[in-house]
Structure formats: structure tokens, C-alpha cells
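Support request from a user on the community tier.

User writes: "When I paste my C-alpha cells into the form, the page sometimes reloads and wipes my input. The last time it worked, I copied everything first. Here is what I submitted, just in case something in the input itself triggers the reload:"
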């Protein structure tokens, strides 16, 4: 397995912003897409956003207009910019490469985001 490097989590007040980053070695050369999921305390895992190998991004209705996914292919890094954060955005966020050409799988620890009211 290849370790993901996930950074950018933290604690903010409602209305604040955070940017998560996820570096996945080989992400670009293996033509991966990336999805972001989150798991809130006592909640089920929820899909948040995806960016496919063609750089097309999609969002859950709950974050549309507030979250933006982007990528730096040269750095094998995907970002999740989050603005106007709400307490219900509190969760551990996971980046998950998908659809990659053959190669090792990825593993990551997630990034914790806490939004206080």
C-alpha cells in the first residue's frame, strides 16, 4: 500500500474556512480520480465530492456552493477548499483515490475537521 499524505484539518468557528490537501503518489500517472468522504460522530459515512481523471468535479448537495475540489497534477495532490463551514460539517474527512490504473492500493488516516457554533 501507498500512504496518502493528508493535511489541513483543524478547528474553526462557523462561517470559517479550511483547505484539506491529499497527496497520493502516482495519482496523476495512474489516472486516478479522487473522492472525498466524511464520517461525522455517530453518523454514517457520507460522500462529499469527487474529481475524476478528466478533472470533472461533483458535489453533494449539502456542500455545493461551499466546497471546491481542485488538483495539482504535477504534485499528485488534490485539495478540498471549504468555506462558510457549518457545525454539521464536523467530521473526519477521507480522500480516496479511485479508478486508478494497476498498482498498489492507497491508505490514509483522514483529516479531522471541527466546526463550532
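"...and here is what came back when it finally went through:"
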Amino acid at each position: 500500500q501507498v500512504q496518502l499524505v493528508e493535511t489541513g484539518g483543524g478547528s474553526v468557528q462557523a462561517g470559517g474556512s479550511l483547505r484539506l490537501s491529499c497527496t497520493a503518489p502516482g495519482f496523476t500517472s495512474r489516472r486516478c480520480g479522487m473522492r472525498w468522504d466524511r464520517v461525522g460522530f455517530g453518523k454514517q459515512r457520507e460522500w462529499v465530492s469527487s474529481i475524476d481523471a478528466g478533472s470533472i468535479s461533483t458535489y453533494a448537495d449539502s456542500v455545493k456552493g461551499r466546497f471546491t475540489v481542485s488538483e495539482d497534477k504535477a504534485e499528485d495532490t488534490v485539495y478540498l477548499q471549504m468555506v462558510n463551514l457549518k457545525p454539521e460539517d464536523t467530521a473526519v474527512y477521507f480522500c480516496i483515490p479511485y479508478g486508478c490504473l494497476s498498482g498498489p492500493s492507497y491508505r490514509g488516516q483522514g483529516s479531522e475537521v471541527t466546526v463550532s457554533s
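Agent notes: The reload is a front-end session timeout and is unrelated to the input. The chain has a mean pLDDT of 97. The chain is about 0% helix and 50% strand. Escalated to web team.
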